[in-house]
Amino acid sequence: MGNRVRVDLLIQGGQVVTAAHQSYPVRGREMNELNVIDQGWVACQGDTIVGVGTQQSLESKLEITDSTRVIDATGQVVTPGLVDPHTHLIFGGSREDEFYLRAQGADYMDIMEAGGGIASSVRATRNESLAELVESGRKRLKWMLNMGVTTVECKSGYGLDLDTELKQLEAVGILKQEQPVELVSTFLGAHAWPEEFKGNQEGYVDFLIDTVLPRVKDEELAEYVDVFTEKGVFSVEQSRRIFRKAQELGFKLRVHADEMNTLGGAELAAEMGMSSADHLLMVSDQGIQALGESGVVPILLPGTAFTLRKPYAPARKMLDAGLPLALATDFNPGSCPTASLALVMSIACLYMAMTPEEVFHAVTINAAHSLGRSDRIGSIEVGKQADLAIFDTDHYKKIPYFFGVNLVTTVVKQGRVI
Q1: Running DSSP on this structure, what letter comes out for residue 271?
Q2: What Å distances lie between residue 219 and 166, 215, 224, 358, CA to CA?
Q3: Tens of pLDDT along 105-145?
Q4: How far apart (Å, rounded) are the C-alpha atoms in residues 146 and 70?
């Protein structure tokens, strides 16, 4: 056999969307240049990709034996495992009544000020046990995995007190160990003002800085810290204080920025060298320019604009400015109760004028880059982790086109068919 590479798993005959480029993240116009191999082969050894190309280019280099698992993907599309870089996966209760209230014209922020919204989820999450949060999280991750998602970012933020914030992050930690989807933990204690600190906003900011952040760090419960920087929630200056302490403690940063109002969250993300700035429905031209001059990945959440019936983030303007966009579900019980990244891809094409090529980069390699993992996941390249999804359609453009339909037939995580 000479120097042939042993193959444990071979996927052959499909249209392979590699999403591979020279460097990451993929920016601006480059996002329209999608690397696709028709009738391609993807070969895996253990948890690693060892061959990507055509049969002609690979056959003589691979050792395929009786023990090699072969998947015939003829007439199907093979993509990197999808990456969802912004979710609020762990929460108690649900808010279907608000969903219908908003459908009748109620405003999200008005509902929140009347004691609904995030406060409603906080009450429910405080009342649920760790085991109950793990159980509901497990079920939701199964929904995502079935739709080709192999890596998910999970935020806390429905506790707003020490014990429940830690409980949410502990639930993520347990789920990391017991199911196949790779999870990335984010502490979002600065999600809303808790009842206990009514009229004492600075007191809550101090509490997060002095008490909660050090505990989260000591117990190694999160990789990132996020803040809901928004009018009526955390000001830019309050956010900066929290983020400075988080940086001091060694956390990486993400931010809910310029969602309902133009507040300067994008500029703050650029100033502090954050990993991502998320939402950006109301981002200013100055904010776009600041992001363009930084290494920050903008994560757009069109499912949220769709649910709240708000204007969409200016994706084309950002792409024209050379920004590297990512997309996420923002799965949460209030403003976006969908776990379907495929639906988000369709909405991005229909309402933000993104092309299918841009959308595929946004849910694979750029999403992975926003989580600090583009060296390992997000594209189909030799040496990377074998995270793959197979769709039952013959062209990648048909995946966002058949909106609301789950076309995934097979998911591979770390070389293992799930």
Answers
A1: H
A2: 9, 6, 14, 38
A3: 888 777 777 777 888 899 999 999 999 999 999 999 999 99
A4: 21
Tokens 């391609």 belong to residue: 40
Q: Pick the closest to residue 138 from 185, 186, 83, 180 (CA basis).
A: 180
Q: Collect the ranges in the chain with pLDDT lower than 50.
A: 1
> Going by DSSP bridges, is the β-strand pair 36-45/48-54 parallel, antiparallel, or unpaired?
antiparallel
3-state SS of 311-349 is CCCCHHHHHHCCCCCEECCCCCCCCCCCCCHHHHHHHHH
Residue 123 in 3-state DSSP? helix
Cα dihedral 88, 361, 350, 84, rounded to 10, equals -10
Dist CA 152 CA 54 (whole Å): 31
Strands 388-391 and 408-413: antiparallel
Mapped onto helix, strand or coil, the DSSP state of residue 10 is strand
> Which amino acid appears at position 282 of this protein?
M
Structure token digits, residue 13: 């005959």
Cβ-Cβ contacts under 8 Å for 103 (sequence gap 6 or more):
none
Count the alpha carbons within 13 Å of 356 in the hemisphere toward its beta carbon: 14
**Distance from C-alpha of 226 to C-alpha of 276, rounded to nearest angstrom:** 10
Tell me the pTM: 0.97
